[in-house]
C-alpha cells in the first residue's frame, strides 16, 4: 500500500517507524514530517491543514490509506473533507469525523457526552464571559485545589490547578476576559479536583468494535518531582504497575464500552484512536479528558510494545473490520525520556546542532522538533526535540537503556528530566 501520514512530531515518527516495518507498506509519505521521518519515509512539504493539497497529493500518488496524527486537522474536519470529495470518498482514513474530534476540541462537549453516557468523571460547570459573576460565585462553593480548563484546544497548556480561591478567581478572569488562551478560553470548565495517580489508556476503534492498546503513564510537568509548568509531556512508561488486570477490566466496563457505545448511539462517526486520560482514585477510574488521537510522548512507549502488524491495525480501523484484527503485545517495558530545548515550555532558541550517537541496542530515538540546516546538520527546531525510548525485560533495565542513550546526546541548552519512571519504581519496591 501507498500510505500518507499527516504530522511532524515524535508521535508521527513512532507511527512511521512502526508502519514501515510492515510488509503491507510499499511507500510511506509523511506530511510534513521531520528529520527522523525523512530517513525512513518520504517527507512532503504539505501543511496538515491544507485539505485541498492533501486531496491532490492522495490522487497524484495513488494513496490507499491516510493516517492523521495530530488533533488540529481532525478538529478542523479533514476526515469529513476527504470523505465528502467524490475522488477520495472511498479511501480509508484513520481519524474521527469533525463531530467525533469535538471530544477533544471542546472540554464542555466531552463532559456532556460523559454525563449522557454515564462515564465516571469529575463534577463540573461551564461558564462564559457573560456569566462570569455566576462563575466567581461557583468558585466559592468549590473545595481546593480548583481545576480550570480552557474549553478549546490550547496545545496542552489550557489546564490550571489553582491552590487558593484568590488564584482561581484571578485565573478565571484572565481566561475569560483577558483571553489568556485566546479563543480556546471563550468558555471555561470549572472542575472538581481528583486525587490519585494518572493513567493514559489508548483505544483503537472503528466505531463499532475496539482494541485496548498498551496503557502508559506520562509526565507532564517540566520540573523533576512533577514541579513547574505543564508541557506537552516529558516522558512516559508502559506498562504501568497499578493498571493490573482487575483495574483494566473496570476501565473497560465503566469507561471504554460506554464511550464506544455512546459514539455509536449518538451517530458520531469515529474510526481512529481514542486517548482516555484517567485518574485512578482509590482503585476507581475517572475520566479526566478524551483526546482524539494517540498521546505524545506515550505513543513512543506504546507502539514499540505492539508486536502484531501495525498496518493491519490501521486498515482494520479505517475499513470497519477491526474485529478481525488480533492485537499482540510484548510483556517488555518501554520507557521514554523527552529531551527539550532549554527554556521550553516558554521561549527557547532554535538551530543548535545536535550530536547524536549511533542507536544503541534496545533503544530507539524518535525525532520531534528536529530539522536539518543548510550544512545538513541535525538541529533543534521545536520545544520537544527528541523522545528516547528504552526497552527492557524490567522497568529498571528499560530506564537504564533510555538514560544511557540520552546522556550521550548533546546540543546547547538541552534539558531532560532525570526522574522519569522513578515513582513507578518506588511503587514496585
Automatic annotation (TrEMBL):
Keyword Nucleotide-binding recorded: yes
Keyword annotations from UniProtKB, A to Z: ATP-binding, Ligase, Nucleotide-binding, Purine biosynthesis
UniProt pathway annotation: Purine metabolism; IMP biosynthesis via de novo pathway; N(1)-(5-phospho-D-ribosyl)glycinamide from 5-phospho-alpha-D-ribose 1-diphosphate: step 2/2
Cross-referenced InterPro entries: ATP-grasp, ATP_grasp_subdomain_1, PreATP-grasp_dom_sf, PRibGlycinamid_synth_ATP-grasp, PRibGlycinamide_synth, PRibGlycinamide_synth_C-dom, PRibGlycinamide_synth_C_sf, PRibGlycinamide_synth_N
Keyword Mitochondrion applies: no
Catalytic reaction equation(s): 5-phospho-beta-D-ribosylamine + glycine + ATP = N(1)-(5-phospho-beta-D-ribosyl)glycinamide + ADP + phosphate + H(+)
Entry's EC annotation: 6.3.4.13
Domain ATP-grasp, first and last residues per copy: 111-319
Single annotated GO MF: phosphoribosylamine-glycine ligase activity
HAMAP family, A to Z: GARS
Record family assignment: Belongs to the GARS family.
Protein name: Phosphoribosylamine--glycine ligase
Species of origin: Algoriphagus halophilus
Lineage of producing organism: Bacteria, Pseudomonadati, Bacteroidota, Cytophagia, Cytophagales
Gene expressing this chain: purD
Amino acid at each position: 500500500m501507498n500510505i500518507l501520514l499527516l504530522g511532524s512530531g515524535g508521535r508521527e515518527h513512532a507511527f512511521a517507524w512502526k508502519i514501515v516495518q510492515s510488509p503491507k507498506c510499499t511507500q510511506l509519505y509523511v506530511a510534513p514530517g521531520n528529520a527522523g521521518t525523512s530517513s525512513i519515509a518520504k517527507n512532503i512539504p504539505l501543511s496538515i491543514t491544507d485539505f485541498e493539497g492533501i486531496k491532490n497529493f492522495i490522487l497524484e500518488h495513488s494513496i490507499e490509506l491516510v493516517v492523521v496524527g495530530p488533533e488540529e486537522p481532525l478538529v478542523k474536519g479533514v476526515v469529513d473533507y476527504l470523505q465528502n470529495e467524490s475522488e477520495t470518498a472511498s479511501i480509508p482514513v484513520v481519524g474521527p469525523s469533525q463531530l467525533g474530534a469535538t471530544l477533544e476540541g471542546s472540554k464542555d462537549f466531552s463532559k456532556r457526552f460523559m454525563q449522557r453516557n454515564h462515564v465516571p468523571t469529575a463534577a463540573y460547570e461551564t461558564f462564559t464571559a457573560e456569566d462570569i459573576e455566576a462563575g466567581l460565585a461557583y468558585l466559592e462553593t468549590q473545595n481546593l485545589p480548583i481545576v480550570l480548563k480552557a474549553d478549546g484546544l490550547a496545545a496542552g497548556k489550557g489546564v490550571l490547578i489553582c491552590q487558593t480561591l484568590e488564584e482561581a478567581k484571578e485565573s478565571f478572569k484572565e481566561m475569560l476576559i483577558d483571553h489568556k488562551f485566546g479563543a480556546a478560553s471563550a468558555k471555561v470548565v470549572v472542575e472538581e479536583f481528583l486525587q490519585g495517580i494518572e493513567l493514559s489508556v489508548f483505544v483503537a476503534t472503528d466505531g463499532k468494535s475496539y482494541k485496548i492498546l498498551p496503557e502508559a503513564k506520562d509526565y507532564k510537568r517540566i520540573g523533576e518531582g512533577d514541579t513547574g509548568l505543564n508541557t506537552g509531556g516529558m516522558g512516559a512508561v508502559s506498562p504501568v504497575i497499578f493498571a493490573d488486570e482487575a483495574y483494566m477490566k473496570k476501565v473497560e466496563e465503566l469507561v471504554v464500552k460506554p464511550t464506544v457505545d455512546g459514539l455509536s448511539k449518538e451517530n458520531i462517526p469515529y474510526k481512529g484512536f481514542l486517548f482516555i486520560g484517567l485518574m485512578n482514585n482509590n482503585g476507581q477510574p475517572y475520566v479526566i479528558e478524551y483526546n482524539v488521537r494517540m498521546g505524545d510522548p506515550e505513543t513512543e512507549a506504546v507502539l514499540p510494545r505492539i508486536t502484531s502488524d501495525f498496518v493491519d491495525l490501521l486498515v482494520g480501523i479505517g475499513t470497519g473490520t477491526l474485529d478481525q484484527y488480533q492485537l499482540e503485545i510484548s510483556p517488555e517495558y518501554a520507557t521514554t525520556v523527552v529531551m527539550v530545548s532549554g527554556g521550553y515550555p516558554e521561549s527557547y532558541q532554535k538551530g543548535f546542532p545536535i550530536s547524536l550517537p549511533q542507536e544503541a541496542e534496545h533503544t530507539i530515538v524518535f525525532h520531534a522538533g528536529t530539522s536539518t540546516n543548510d550544512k545538513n546538520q541535525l538541529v533543534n527546531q521545536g520545544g520537544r526535540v527528541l523522545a528516547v525510548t528504552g526497552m527492557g525485560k524490567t522497568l529498571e533495565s528499560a530506564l537504564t537503556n533510555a538514560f544511557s542513550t540520552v546522556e550521550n546526546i548533546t546540543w546547547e541548552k538541552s534539558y531532560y528530566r532525570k526522574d522519569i519512571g522513578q515513582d513507578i519504581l518506588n511503587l514496585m519496591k
